[in-house]
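It is worth pausing here to work through a concrete case rather than discussing structure prediction in the abstract. The textbook approach is simple: state the sequence, then state the predicted structure, then interpret. We follow exactly that order.
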Amino acid sequence: MKIEKKIVFLGILLLILIALFMFIGLNSRNFEYALSQRIPKIIAILLTGSSIAFSSTIFQTITNNRILTPSVLGLDSIYMFIQTFMVFVFGSSTLAKVGGSFNFVLSVGLMALFSVLLFKLLFKREGNNIFFLLLLGLVFGTFFQSLSSFMQVLIDPNEFMIVQNKMFASFNNINTNILGLALVGVMVALVFTYKHLKALDVLSLGRENAINLGVEYDKTVKTMLMVISILVSVSTALVGPITFLGLLVVNVTREFLKTYKHKYLIVGSMLVGSIALVGGQLMAERIMKFSTPISVIINFIGGVYFIYLLFKEGKN
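Step two, the predicted structure:
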C-alpha cells in the first residue's frame, strides 16, 4: 500500500471513531446537551493527540533515538510544580477565582521560559550536544518533582485532592475558554515547522551527516526545540501529563508508514495520536464507564511497548 493510501486509511479510521464518539447513545431528549459536551471534548482530544505526536516525532529525529519522548526535558515536572506551588501558597479557592485561562497562560508561559533557559545553557558553548540537554532536563525534572512531593505532603488533604486531579490527564472537565488559545499555539507550530521539513529529513541521518550536507545544525535544532516546548506545554496545560503516548504513536507510525520523510511522518503520527486518544476515551467512557482514567490505559500500554522497544534495540 502506498504511503498516501495509508494516510487516507488512518484519516478514515479517525473519522469513524469520531462519529462513534459523537453519536453513540444520542436520542431526541439528550441530543443538544450531549453534543454541547462532546464537541469541545473531541476538539481537546484532537489537539492533545496531535501536539504530543507532532512534538515526539521531531524530538526523536533531532535526538536520533526512537525510545525518547519530550517528557525527559522535565516539562511535566515543571507543570506539576506550578500547580502544586499555586495551591500550596494561594490555596485552591484562589486558583478557582483566577480561572482556567489564567492558569493555562501562566503554565505555558513558565514552561516555555524554562525551555528557553535550558536551551541557552545548551547552545552557550560549542561542543555541548543534545544529550547534555537531556541530562539537564532529567536533573531539573527530578528536582522539581521532589519540590512538588515535598509541598504535597504539607498541604491539607482536601487541597491535595485538587493537586491530584492535575497529575492525570483528563478530558472530562475541559475548559472551553482555552481551546482557542491551544489551537492557535498548535497552528503556529505547524506553520513554523513546515519550512524545516526537508532539514528534518537530513537531521535523521545524525549530527555529523547533517552538518556535512549543509544543514545549519545548531540553529535548526534550537528552533525545533522551541516548537517542541510550545507543543508539549500546550498539551500538558490543556489536559495534564501523558507520558508514553508520544513514544507509542510515533513508533507505531514509523512501523506502519516505513518512510523517513517528515511530511508523511508528522501527518501520520498526528492521525495515529488522535486515533489512540479518541479510541481510548471511547473505551474509557462507554466500556469502562469512567472507572479508569485514559492516561492510566495509555501509560500501561506505552510502558509495555517501551520495554518491548528496549529488548528490540538491545538485540540490534
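Step three, interpretation. DSSP finds 14 helices and no strands in the chain. Residues 253 and 269 are 5 Å apart (CA to CA).
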